[in-house]
Design a protein that fits this description.
By secondary structure, this protein is mainly alpha-helical. It has 28 helices and two strands. The protein folds into four domains: 33-173; 244-253 and 293-425, 5 helical Cullin repeat like (Up-down Bundle), CATH 1.20.1310; 446-602, Exocyst complex subunit Sec15 C-terminal domain, N-terminal subdomain (Tetracycline Repressor, domain 2, Orthogonal Bundle); 633-817, Methane Monooxygenase Hydroxylase, Chain G, domain 1, CATH 1.20.58. The chain has a two-stranded antiparallel ribbon with strand order 1-2. Helix 22 (648-663) packs parallel to helix 24 (701-719). The protein is elongated and about 215 Å long. Residues 1-28, 259-291 and 787-792 have low confidence and may be disordered.
Amino acid sequence: MCNSRTVHQLVHPLVHCGEHTTIMAENETLECVTEHERILQEIESTDTACVGPTLRSIYDDQPNAHKRFMEKLDARIRNHDREIEKMCNFHHQGFVDAITELLKVRADAEKLMVRVTETNRRLQEAGREVTVQTEEVIRCRIQQRNMATTVEKLQLCIPVLEMYSKLKEQLDSKRYYAALKTMEQLEKVFIPRVGQYRFCQIMAENLPRLREEIKEISMSDLKDFLESIRKHSDKVGETAMRQAQQHRTFNSAVAKQASVGHYTKPLYSLNGRTPPARPLKRPCLLCVGQVLTAQDLVDFSPVYRCLHIYTVLGDRETFENYYRKQRKKQARLVLQPQANMHETVEGYRRYFNQIVGFFVVEDHILHATQGLVTRAFTDELWNMALSKIIAVLRTHSSYCDDPDLVLELKNLIVIFADTLQGYGFPVTRLFDLLFEVRDQYNETLLKKWAQVFREIFELDNYSPIPVDTEEEYSLVLSRFPFHDAEIEKQDFPKKLPMSQSVPQIYTQVKEFIYASLKFSESLHRSSTEIDDMLRKSTNLLLTRTLSSCLQNLIKKPHIGLTELVQIIINTTHLEQACRYLEEFITNITNVSPETVHTTRLYGLSTFKDARHAAEGEIYTKLNQKIDEFIQLADYEWSMAESDGRASGYLMDLINFLRSTFQVFTHLPGKVAQTACMSACKHLSTSLMQMLLDSELKQVSMGAIQQFNLDVIQCELFASSEPVPGFQGDTLQLAFIDLRQLLDLFMVWDWSTYLADYGQPTSKYLRVNPATALALLEKMKDTTKKNNIFSQFRKNDRDKQKLIETVVKQLRSLVNGMSS
């Protein structure tokens, strides 16, 4: 039916279109009828949505096929309408009968409804009280059941609430580790039993937040702990270093007591080696038995608590990384020195205390916890710190110019190294650094002693030491090793040859050795090494500092000949005392001077060099003094005749030389002789230069005679042996050039000079033709000037011709020499 109606709706428009083609459809063949039947069956049996393709096939077939199909379709519709009508006619009478019977039953149904309603009313009235009682019973039963359920659930919830209350108490009392354990029990045991309740869900949601709060609180405590460490590291380090120093002092006292009664040797003597240093025991700063413990200075509980908390929370690695990172940062801060640290020893002490305190704490953490810090981590920190410490000490120690401060710094470094060595940290590089600091210490000592030597030289009177009594003599001998049999035989008062600076210098050199020795203490070095250090530093003092001071002293303008003579005497005695300084060092170190590698003192060369410099300065000053007298000369070069006596300036010069050479009696013979010979040669050279000066144009025979008188006085001075030790006329030979030149002009013996020139036996062998020519030309000019009105006299003309002849011959000799 449905399919027929659908088909009718779809094809109804087509019916009207095909009414005019009905007659033509009757002529279709039997095959088309069969095909239309199949299409109709397919339309009736197919869903409406799929009818489209079927209908399209009708139009795609033969022309006018749709008209025949419409006719067939109308026939099929009429057939279906007849069938529907037959079916309706068949069931119509039954439907009418059923409606009639239903109308009859309606009256009975209304009566039944009235009776049921009445019966229900009476029943409700009769059972109302029973219903009330029943409802009450039900309500009581429900309450009883609810109470039982509530009791049961409360019995499950009460432990949860008790545990949560316990958790709150633990949090309030800052027992975080116990609180974490309680949280763990709540999560794993109690909450799962009553997890369906809202308050349990709230609890479960709060637990992670509480854990985070605990982590934050414990981390805050850790940060406070790190800040506390930063503040207390100085005190911890100070205590550790003080205990290490006390431990060393105690060991030294025990060692001294053990050596009493057996044998006595210097501090640095044990078969040429230092006693092997006993390994320092680990300081007990952090041990329980001490009066002052680490817990008294630093509260470590935040570290332990935070470590346990993060361990329980499964985040230990994060905590370890954070702790190590922060400690590395603190290490860098601790290792950063103050800018003025080098000014006082307290600056170095605070620096060392902070570093020691840092590593003492790290060592305690290393041994008190498992894995928070490792030995590899502390070694890494120490290596980083050690490089920084060495660089800082190198830089700041270079600023120190006070040897006492450098010595205190060395002692601090030794205590610092011993303290950390007791905690297992390697400190070899620190002791190597001490050798660099030792060089710096020696430099500061040398600067200090240079000032000491300068003050001694400035205060010296450069005169022999007067000794009036035996006590004074013994006092000098106690300060300086002087022995002279002749002086010892003399009665008091008497004079020692050296000045007061000699025993002072000797004493100061010994003080320098003592000061240098102080640095070598506690360095764990052998006696041989210490002996070598002392000798090298003493050599530096002698060859550099004392030698420089002596050289500067000698060059000072106010140091005269008398002072220079005394300096030579002083250096001679200091040179002789060098062997006593070697014995002094040997007695300190107990190292035999015959040892193969023993360094010798270079004092001998130092004092010899100073003495040679003083001798050279004597020669220079003598020559300068001679030049000063020569500058006072005032010859009248055109005088007709001499005065008959030597010039005043020359007599003053000779008297000065006589008095000066008398002072040279204490000098070594060769020094005095060399000075005297040098003075005579310089005087001769100066006189010759004066005579041949290019600015001097004319010289008369009278001036030559006067000059000859002065040279005679010089020769007399030379022959008087002003300094003993000259053989024959050795000293007079200094004036031989002048003497032969003056004799040549005084005697006017030109024929002999020209005839014997170049012969080894010549009387005027020392007269140079150029020198004679220069002087002769000065005399020729004078002759021309004086005889301008008497040139017609025969003698004068002959003399003039002779001079011109000699001049020509001398020029030929000079030209022959030059060619």
